[in-house]
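Service request form, structural biology core

Requester: graduate student, group of Dr. S.
Request type: structure prediction, single chain
Budget code: on file
Notes: please return the result as structure tokens.

Sequence provided:
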Amino acid sequence: MNSEDIQQRVTAIGLTPKTHENGMVYRNVGRSGLKASALGVGCFAFGGYTTQEFVQQVVDQALELGINYFDTANSYGIGRSEASLGQALKGGKRQQVLIASKFGNRMGDGPNDEGASRMAIINACEASLRRLNTDYIDLYQLHWPDHSTPIEETLRALDDLVKSGKVRYIGASNMFAWELCESYFCAKELGLSHFISAQDHYNLLYRDIEKRFEPFCVKYGIGMTHYFPLASGMLSGIHKRGAIVAGTRQDKNPNTEAWQSDRNWFVVEKLQAFALERGWTLAQMSLAWLLSRPATFTVIAGADKPQHLLDNVKALSIQFTSDDLLEIDRITLVDEDRCVAPPYRKLRPEKVHEFDCMQRAKSGAPSLAAH
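Core staff response, request fulfilled:
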């Protein structure tokens, strides 16, 4: 922090709040008191896909923009992402950020080198702390559910880490709604720390999470953050059907083809036209839309160049009208909801996650079914 800037903001009751030209805002993580920047930095690329010089540039640019949320995992580059982030935060920068790391994926060949058992969690945490060069992790997240370990054991181990000061808060990732529900009420019953956040796949092309998961998070105050917010480049606005831009990450990624269904391109092309009509880029609109969702506290966007961050923060200036959101729904909610029995498509439209049914429900159309 700039000492001259601090001196100018000193008052009898502490510092006056610092404002950021880009309009960076901070949101509580669920119902906790922890505050995170509305945009975060996904650190997957720090795990060997860029140089330490670029990592430093990204971290410094993020701090200048007011971004404080850095999401990594022990398995990103098998420790390299955490080590690179820790290196970039030297020199007093650690106190300015929230480090959100994850555990659970396999890190070695031993039987306890993966999962969410007490041994696996404590070993993973200690190793992450060493790599990150820090005494504590702000948000420690279970990367994937471990169905071979009772959730009580996982929660007790995490609660011990919180009580020891090595972890401040805990979160989950990639859980089904029933698993998050089970963990929440188990923690409540046992008087343990509970997950304050949930990180999951969510973007304008994949909205199924709104059916069951998002409503649970809203009701019980669990903050949501999302990976693949740009659908692995599909929503970047850079690529076109049958023409992935050479030299980009998507050009070199063997998984790129898996995203490119006709259905996805159909939606992307309509979204692109919609965004351009309003003077937005598709990427910025996609990030802004996620930030409009009721449980979202931050959106994680990968960045291996400082320019990516400068582009991303422009999403904060986008303000949707109700008509904008209605049209985005019309464009993206194009799939049949096969979770609901056919007779209830008209009888209980509020249960159906499709555009026409959702609009009927929002208009106040009464349910016609007895059950």
